[in-house]
């Protein structure tokens, strides 16, 4: 029944009438029943397997480097410029090699499904690594800015501490100078008092020694008198008696 339907199709098209659903279904069945032609084999270039292996090696190396950088970010909070340059260099090399694969394959890369899947997988992985690298760079920028803020705060606190230490040292030196001055003054006052006491003691001792010498001289000149007789009124004796009387009064006072 499929052959008459196909024979009537030109007449329907000529008359300008629209095809019925039955005609469309019969046409689809006929198309599905036709055998599909086998895909033409595509000869791959000799350099393509080597290039793909290089791509995989670069990809794994880049993954290792990024893992190391991730650990450094978690441990230190900053990304060094040399390591970041190495990552960027590896990424650019991979991009160039992928472009070489696409250019030299002559546009037949899509006809070979295995090769297309492999290249697409490498491309996706590279894109994923690029996104991770961007995140790492953003983290590095944030960590560097926060680290610079912390460094500025630490420097400010350090300057304040240094200022406080210098002020405390100045106060300590001033207090020590004052204490030394007070001690020197006290020592001077004590020395003056000791000197005055020594001078007074020496003057008193000399006066007592002089009076004792005078008394001895007068006794040696005037022998003892009879107690029944009235003593002579010697002016020297009288003066000596008055002096002894004054000294006794001073001692009592």
TrEMBL record:
The region called Disordered is annotated at 1-22
Question: Keywords of this protein's UniProt record, alphabetized?
Answer: Membrane, Transmembrane, Transmembrane helix
> Which superkingdom?
Bacteria
Q: Where are the transmembrane segments?
A: 182-202
Q: What is this protein called?
A: Uncharacterized protein
* Organism for this UniProt entry: Magnetococcus massalia (strain MO-1)
